[in-house]
Predict the 3D structure of the following.
Amino acid sequence: MRRIYMDANATTPLLPEVFEAMRPFFLEHYGNASSIHQQGQFARAAVDHARDTIAGLLHCRTSEIVFTSGGTESDNLALFGTLSGTLNTLKNEPAHLITTSIEHDAVIRAAESLAKNNVEVTFLPSTTNGVIEPTALLAAIRPNTKLVSVMFANNETGVIQPIATLAAIAHAAGALFHTDAVQAVGRLPLDLSPKGPLKDVDLLTLSGHKIYAPKGIGALFVRRNVRLAPMLHGGSHERQRRAGTENVAGIVALGKAAELANTWLTQDSTTDGPTHLTALRDRLEHGILSQVEECGVNGEGAPRVSNTSNLYFDHIEAEALVIALDLKGLSVSGGSACQSGATEPSHVLTAMGLTPTRARASIRFSLSRLTTAQEIDEALTLIPTAIARLRDLSPTWNKPAALIPA
Ligand code: PLP
């Protein structure tokens, strides 16, 4: 059975070009980038080149990129690295962190941990279509607000936040601004240059395995002059911001993935690029909505990244649908990957006001740059059939209200 992959927000396939770029760094070029001999210097040059390419993608300075082990570490470094420094200087006054109720667990759990360590934390609410409103941030700002952290694009709904406006509000209040851009990098053009639209963003997280590089590599953009306490103590790697021998092969892969993302973002043809991917996503979404009753889009009306569609199908359990589609060769997700297998409804969807039942009936389709029109058409035959079968078994589907169990 040929499988169709529609779970790119959980992880993207590794592109062959990315794999070919990193392969020599496992075999011939295994030097440690800190060694002064030729093999070490070869590795160092490759790390520098990758850093240049990533800085090019984000329009920032090379020195502002810190390599990490991925999105989770970058988020933790941004939060702990800025707030632990502030705590030391504030002595008695606790620092205040503002984040949101729709963040990835990498931010939410880090914030909860900080809350246990004398940091005041506010979780901003979401609108029903998944947006964090600037007015909500303005209302939450306090004199001791030191950091605001709002994700760029949500991993479950794809909804894009008004980051430039939110970051400007944080700066006007004298706070730093971090964004978890794991689901935005490589999907949206991002310009962090000092006069660019994201000039007020101080810290930005990215992860390799969401941009067609391997798992276990990522980066944190740290704007010049932002003081960041390291979380890992050891050697003076990454300008003393992240100790540990560099993952040279992973870094090379991330650099290659950034180069390919840059090219892809400028494609605007009918066969490749963001516009093409949006057209495929919309074809899938409209195709499902026109064939299936009692379903809808989570995040409807809000700006969304080109590849993501989160739909609810009343009278089904998402988990059952994920399994049914899996058996037919289609990989999708019932929430964020970190939550699959858990019985709790998605915290993102419930924060948007969905009932727990509707949140448990929601499925995420996330396309990749490799998704084809033929795959969309195949999916459009599988999905309505699977839903109809599950609804036939549902105790609430098409039953008179009197027969629906309480
Ligand atoms: N932030 C977001 C929005 C994510 O989607 C993910 C991964 O799903 C992460 C952070 C964590 O990234 P990593 O898997 O590289 O640790």
Summary: Residues 70-72, 75, 104, 106, 151, 155, 180, 182-183, 207, 209, 218, 337 surround pyridoxal-5'-phosphate (CB under 6 Å). The chain is about 40% helix and 15% strand. The longest strand covers residues 308-313. The longest helix spans residues 38-58.
